[in-house]
Design brief:
Layout (H helix, E strand, L loop, with lengths): L1 E7 L4 H11 L5 E8 L5 H8 L4 E3 L8 H13 L5 E4 L8 H6 L4 E5 L11 H8 L3 E8 L9 E8 L6 H24 L3 E4 L2 E4 L4 H7 L5
Parallel strand pairs: 1-2, 1-4, 2-3, 4-5
Antiparallel strand pairs: 5-6, 6-7, 8-9
Helix pairs in contact: 1-6
The structure holds ligand NHR and glycinamide ribonucleotide.
The site of ligand NHR has 16 residues, from β5.
């Protein structure tokens, strides 16, 4: 069974979705550790309650990004993960760090990339007046939010949406597609090859799972 390490910065609801999928028998992975860059991340308590090893590396205690990333990599490598999963992790990672985990580092981003990279994606989608929004799971590359796309889920933007209502609609889809993408990796069917995403033997079941439920 493959080992994963999950990196968080806050609430950790995507992490919880991964734990729930594992507990339901839908995600054959060993969650070796959950690591946060923020001491006050709620997700650390949730992970500890689930019996998962937790670590916190406060980025403020390091001289800069490269020093923080080196300490983070050392901590991660202590758990020998096959895959590192960014789940609401809010620190930009240096090129050296990203290259070290080439093909073994994934992120979930709350927009349909390449639209709305960066932060505050839901408010920006509302401000643009787009009619379709969503989330993207991608392999992480040094260029922020520009890595090869693994899976996306779309939701409608409704006339009376607020930032909160749209955030909630997208988050529900994040909790469906992230466990699915990690499952593909765990099954050895998903990989990065020459900078392209390869998924072996996608099934109708996979496709149906990705189709969003309309709100
Ligand atoms: N690192 C690299 N090199 N490439 C990516 O694609 C990355 C990454 C690190 C994180 C997640 C990403 C997202 O899904 C992610 C993708 C943080 C910021 C950010 O601006 C932007 C995008 C993402 C994560 N962070 C600020 C910083 O200075 C801090 C913001 C804060 O602490 O609230 O690092 O959106
Ligand atoms: C999620 O919506 C995730 O896509 C987003 O933050 C939220 C984290 O929630 N990630 C980013 O914005 C990365 N910059 P969670 O902690 O409950 O999973």
């Amino acid at each position: 069974m493959k080992n994963i390490v999950i990196l968080i910065s806050g609430r950790g609801s995507n992490m919880e979705a991964l734990i729930a999928a594992r507990d339901a028998g839908d995600l054959p992975v060993n969650i070796a550790a959950v690591i946060s860059n923020r001491p006050d991340a709620k997700g650390l308590e949730t992970a500890a309650r689930a019996g998962i090893a937790t670590r916190c590396l406060d980025h403020k205690a390091y001289a800069g990004r490269v020093a923080f990333d080196a300490a983070l990599a050392e901590c991660i490598d202590g758990f020998a993960p096959d895959l590192v999963v960014l789940a609401g992790f809010m620190r930009i990672l240096s090129e050296g760090f990203v290259r070290r985990y080439d093909g073994r580092l994934v992120n979930i981003h709350p927009s349909l990339l390449p639209s709305f990279p960066g932060l505050h994606t839901h408010q920006r989608a509302l401000d643009e007046g787009v009619r379709i929004h969503g989330c993207t799971v991608h392999f992480v590359t040094p260029a922020l939010d520009h890595g090869p796309v693994i899976v996306q889920a779309a939701v409608p933007v409704l006339d009376d949406d607020t930032e909160d209502s749209l955030t909630a609609r997208v988050l529900a889809q994040e909790h469906r597609v992230y466990p699915l993408a990690v499952r593909w990796f765990a099954e050895g069917r998903l990989r990065l090859e020459d900078g392209r995403v390869r998924l072996d033997a996608p099934t109708l079941a996979d496709a149906v799972l990705v189709a969003p439920r309309l709100a």
